[in-house]
Every structure is written in C-alpha cells, then in structure tokens.
Amino acid sequence: MTSEDKVQDLYFQHRVHVEQLEAEINKMRVWINDLQAGMYINCVYCGHRYGPDDEMDATMANALKEHIERCPKHPMSDLKNDVRMFRTAAEKWQRIAKEWERENADLRNELREYKAKVNPILEELNKEGLLT
Ligand SMILES: [Zn+2]
Fold first, then answer.
1. Any domain includes 48
2. Domain contains 126
3. pLDDT beneath 50, residues of the chain
4. Is 73 helix (H, G, I), strand (E, B) or coil?
5. pTM
C-alpha cells in the first residue's frame, strides 16, 4: 500500500465515522424536538413562556432562539446594542478617515505645486552662490 493509498484509506475511514456521528446528532435533534414539543419552555431572563398548545411553525428550540433575539432582558440584547453602537462608531470613523485622506491628498498636491515653484528658484540662487 502506497502512502497515497494510506491517506485515502484514512480519509475514507474518518469520513464514514463523521457521517455516522452526523446521523447520530440528527437523530438526537429529532428526539429533543419531540420531547420539547409537549413541554412549556420559558425564557429564564424575562419569563416569557411558550406552551405546547401555542401555534408555531418552528420547533420549540427555534421559537426560544427567536425570542432570545428579541428579548429585552436577555444579555444578547446588550450585545446587539453594543454591536449597533460599535458599527455606528466604526462607520463614523470611516467617514472621518476618508475626509482626512482627501485633505491629505489636497495638502500633498499643494506641497507638490509649491515645490515645483520654489525648487527652480532655489536652484538659481544656488548656482549664483547665494545659498550657503
Ligand atoms: Zn425573554
């Protein structure tokens, strides 16, 4: 067996193992959804409750996930606010940085024009020995 064959063999063995584990995880997810379907689920932060009789398209886990994203008392709300704040600040600083870039480019152009005017004069003065 060449080393290439060994690598392929190992890959195949592990691929099968991963597929088995994924199948097992999916089975467990279905099982969890079945168990939760007949239960009440509460948000531990605000107490909002979803019951087995509530009409929901999604699973209970998804319903809770969706609630958590909107719950004002869940720590995720603070994180979302922080993200919003940082994003706003980052956008503001990006605008400022762009303005500075433009100003910087303007100043560079002014400096280039200034040098273009002054350098010939300096060269002339230097030729005549007026610069020491
Ligand atoms: Zn909540």
1. no
2. yes
3. none
4. coil
5. 0.46
